[in-house]
Design a protein that fits this description.
The complex is a heterodimer of chains A (about 290) and B (about 450). Chain A is mostly helical. The radius of gyration of chain A is 23 Å and the shape is globular. Chain A is built from 13 helices and no strands. With about 450 residues, chain B is of the alpha/beta class. Chain B has two domains: about 200 residues, Periplasmic binding protein-like II (D-Maltodextrin-Binding Protein, domain 2), CATH 3.40.190.10; about 200 residues, D-Maltodextrin-Binding Protein, domain 2 (3-Layer(aba) Sandwich). In chain B, helix 9 packs across helix 10. Classes of the chains: A mainly alpha (about 290), B alpha/beta (about 450). At the A-B interface, helix 11 and helix 12 of A face helix 3, helix 4, helix 11 and helix 18 of B.
Chain lengths: ~290, ~450
């Protein structure tokens, strides 16, 4: 009994912090989402007059629908590229050597760069007049010469995703390197002795054994991608047009930019929270499933 | 000989007696509270004010911040911290601080379009200004309108940083080609075609990107010049009128006609300015504060420095030349617990002498041509320093307009900036503007109009 109370007493500080920084803001946001609250019109706010209008508005708001589509497109693109490129890097670097060790250390740096700085840097480097990426691509891939990377919806979405991949793929590669290291070399050797080619070894042995790690990484990356915000602010501002306007960016603009509508922004935030919660539950169930991972 | 010597000596004594005290008085004035209308005896000594403002590196702000520490604090004992919020975060920070009422900030500035959003949280200054013998009469009409956030008689702020739209052009290119400075957007296109044909330069640097709604600045001067309006009297969207469509098509024609950089579709104002500063474009329509950059060796390429002419922003052939007069007022948050001290700061910050000194400061980091008072715009010394720029600005600002000062404007702006970007990228102007008008009408209907 005593040890039970002690357990809660020791956990209390952490629980208070979690409550104040997570639970309370979530509950407050939900309460706000049930009101018509525009910051510029404080006299029109009536606490206690609850309404689902903000949620109904989200279902008919073409701007919100656009952001859902944009966010899904971005998520699919950035997750697929991050996992594929990360896996590719891991396969190249899985062998031990001094050079590979140095490269593995350097791999962490892109992830350490702040997302906002990533956005500013990429915008600068893609400038068609003086951007280094633009100049390099013009020389290496002539058919793409003259492309206005941030001026066309397709390319803007692609480079936005690539800026994210630039930061995440190295970290994912390090995770895969660890996973590849856990595969027993005897299994690979046995397959080779049976005449399996490298591709067959990869497809029939390595990939299935990596499947749990791939699923975990995919799910985690998807959760982060759904929340994309920083690079949209610093790199594209949701443009060209509204082709890179992600949900989080739209929410921020609704609440603190264009309409100062805290009620509606809170409702959209909660819709995103529900989606992320579903993904998080799937992630937890998968990770905690016995025999997997 | 003796008589001549006596006359000379007398003249010298008279000169010393008049010029000496004038010089001494000028220097003493800078630290004399009475000169700035401040309360004597340092009644607020020890008070610390926080000023929510962005872009502290802007020469005008850097100069004011430095002089605050050196002069205002020395005079009054009031210290001031300028918060240097990035422009991208400025609006959200302002709205958060104003609406939360925490009292963290005492003094704030805001962009004109944001005024209605924070009006409810700003301290009316009428009583204080009247008691201090101040009013807004020394400011252009458009700045007065913004300072009162569109009301008839409530003053919420004092104009601090304001801009006229100007056409800046490469004087050497125009001289070499023997072309006249254009006065209408149509003439800009004609002149631009000549420049494009006969030089390696882009005719004009434009910026159509969705960055902070900046692509509306030039669009508005086209719209108003052509006789179009954003709203009618009942706040129904009318920018999709024939005049609005014509204005928009003219505005984006530089993109479709190849007279501007290919990247202009994604450029913000800063990137647009760089095309002029780095010598890649022959013309640029932007804010007059950028003129100081063209003279700064740290910003402008050698062939551009001191080689830029200026003229009022183009008007519309057969129409008018009304352009957007942009303003940042400075005011006091109602939640401030140090309102009297904050008003002391406002008096000094916006004093005509302070403004003129900032415009005449030759420190490289403080090179600034921005002034907002009519008296400073007409000041001979300021105009001599800046080649008559302020005289031209005064002409422009006399007829300048501002964006609709309604709380819904930022949301309307967001619709328009995306539409303009789409049209610049090739969307049909009529179709896209009609769609934007429908979206704007929905915004206004939701707001109860």
């Amino acid at each position: 009994m005593r040890s039970g109370r002690l357990k809660w007493f020791l956990l209390a500080p952490a629980l208070i912090v979690v409550f104040l920084t997570t639970t309370y803001p979530l509950l407050s946001a939900f309460y706000f989402s049930l009101h018509h609250w525009q910051l510029s019109k404080p006299d029109q706010l009536h606490w206690g007059e609850l309404t689902l209008d903000n949620y109904m508005r989200a279902f008919s708001d073409s701007g919100f629908h656009n952001t859902v589509i944009v966010t899904i497109e971005f998520t699919i693109l950035s997750v697929a590229l991050s996992v594929l490129i990360g896996l590719g890097i891991a396969l190249i670097l899985q062998k031990e050597s001094r050079l590979h060790t140095i490269v593995k250390i350097l791999l962490i740096f892109p992830f350490a760069v702040s997302p906002a700085l990533k956005g500013y840097s990429w915008r600068f480097m893609l400038n068609p007049e003086y951007g280094i990426y633009d100049q390099l691509i013009d020389h290496i891939i002539p058919p793409l010469s003259g492309t206005i990377w941030l001026g066309e919806p397709f390319w803007a979405m692609l480079v936005l995703a690539l800026s994210e991949v630039w930061g995440w793929a190295p970290l994912i590669a390090l995770t895969f390197i660890g996973a590849l290291g856990s595969i027993s070399p005897e299994v690979i050797e046995a397959a080779r002795m049976d005449g399996a080619t490298s591709w067959q070894v990869f497809r029939k042995i390595t990939l299935p054994l990596l499947k749990p790690v791939i699923l975990v990484i995919t799910m985690l990356k998807a959760i982060f991608s759904l929340k994309m915000f920083d690079q949209v602010v610093t790199m594209t501002r949701g443009g060209p047009g509204d082709s890179t306007q992600t949900i989080n960016y739209y929410i921020q603009q609704t609440g603190f930019g264009r309409s100062l509508d805290i009620g509606y922004a809170s409702a959209m935030s909660w819709i995103l929270v529900v989606v992320l919660a579903i993904l998080a539950v799937l992630y937890i169930r998968f990770v905690l499933r016995p025999g997997e991972a | 000989m003796r008589k001549q010597l006596f006359v000379i000596l007398t003249l010298v004594v008279i000169a010393v007696m008049t010029i000496g005290p004038v010089i001494a008085q000028s220097e003493a004035d800078l630290l004399d509270p009475a000169y700035f209308g401040l309360q004597e005896g340092q009644p607020f000594a020890g008070t610390h004010l926080n000023y929510l403002i962005c872009c502290a590196a802007a020469p005008q702000f850097a100069s004011l911040a430095a002089k605050t520490n050196e002069e205002f604090t020395a005079m009054t004992g009031i210290s001031v911290t300028w918060a240097d919020v990035p422009y991208a975060d400025f609006q959200s920070q302002l709205v958060l601080e104003a609406s939360s009422g925490t009292g963290t900030y005492d003094v704030v500035s805001w962009v004109d379009a944001w005024g209605p959003g924070v009006q409810a949280f700003m301290l009316p200054l009428n009583d204080r200004m009247e008691a201090a013998g101040l009013d807004l009469s020394d400011f252009p009409p458009v700045y007065q309108e913004v300072a009162m956030i569109g009301t008839e008689d409530t003053i919420y702020g004092i104009p601090l940083r304001g801009h006229a739209q100007m056409l800046m052009y490469r004087q050497d290119v125009f001289d070499e080609l023997g072309i006249e400075v254009p006065t209408t957007w149509q003439e800009v296109a004609e002149v631009g075609a000549i420049i494009e044909e006969q030089t390696e330069l882009e005719a004009i640097s434009m910026y159509y990107g969705v960055s902070a709604n900046q692509n509306l600045f030039g669009w508005l001067s086209n719209l108003w010049g052509a006789g179009g309006e954003i709203f009618d009297a009942d706040f129904n969207a009318t920018f999709n009128s024939p005049e609005g469509i014509a204005a928009t098509e003219q505005y984006v024609s530089f993109m479709s006609d190849g007279l501007t950089a290919d990247g202009a579709i994604a450029f913000g104002e800063g990137e647009g300015e760089e095309e002029l500063l780095q010598g890649r474009a022959a013309m640029f329509v932007g804010w007059w504060w950028m003129f100081a950059d063209t003279q700064n060796p740290e910003r402008a390429a050698p062939e551009v420095q001191n080689n830029i002419g200026f003229a009022p922003a183009p008007g519309w052939e057969g129409g008018s030349a009304a352009s957007y007069g942009y303003l940042w007022p400075v005011g006091i948050l109602s939640s401030s617990t140090q309102q009297d001290a904050a008003f002391e700061y406002l008096k000094w910050l916006t004093h005509p002498t302070t403004e003129a000194r900032v415009a005449l400061d030759e420190t490289p980091a403080f090179l600034n041509n921005v002034v907002v008072r009519n008296s400073t715009l007409q000041d001979e010394a300021v105009n001599e320093r800046w080649g008559g720029l302020q005289f031209t600005a005064a002409e422009i600002l006399a007829d300048a307009r501002t964006m609709p000062l309604i709380p819904e404007w930022p949301e309307v702006e967001a619709v328009l900036t995306v539409a303009i970007n789409d049209i610049a990228a090739g969307a049909d102007a009529t179709e896209r503007l009609n769609q934007a008008a429908a979206d704007v009408d929905a915004v206004m209907e939701r707001a109860g109009y």
